Amino acid sequence: MVNDIKVTDKGIFIPRELFKELLDVYSKVEQILATLETLADKETLEAIKKGKEEIAKGNYVECKIENLEETLK
Question: Does the CA dihedral 12-13-15-19 come out positive or negative?
Fold first, then answer.
């Protein structure tokens, strides 16, 4: 498939399937980087820990997305 790449004076042309694969890989790399950024941020990790503790204590409310504004009042 890589052999199907064409370079012309108008640009670089790659097969549609290869392009889809590249986008998929790019998306996965973005997700990994976002996870690493979260894990490197002590404040975020502390907030996650506190949130888990609050959930374990039962300190949360449930609502449907369409009722969110009313619930948060």
Answer: positive
